[in-house]
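Each field is set out underneath.
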Amino acid sequence: MLQLLSSGSVKTDRRVQIKMPKLVVEELDRLFPDTDRSRLLTQLALEAILTKLRFTNRPGLGVIASSEQAGLDTLWDYLEEREHGNPRR
């Protein structure tokens, strides 16, 4: 699937609108200045799908993934609070 999308032979036929903290968008633009956001987010989504499938086939990794996801959720909450001017102390 990843090879098909990276080759450009798969038609883009679905539009998805997402909302992200401004800080995340600015960081993406800084780290990947010459990369189309749509392409970048598609690649990230594919990596998430492949990771999920790998964890499904190896249940022991699921515990590690859950722990990492909890950390990412905490970071996301922090970024949203920071963007809206309500930083945690």
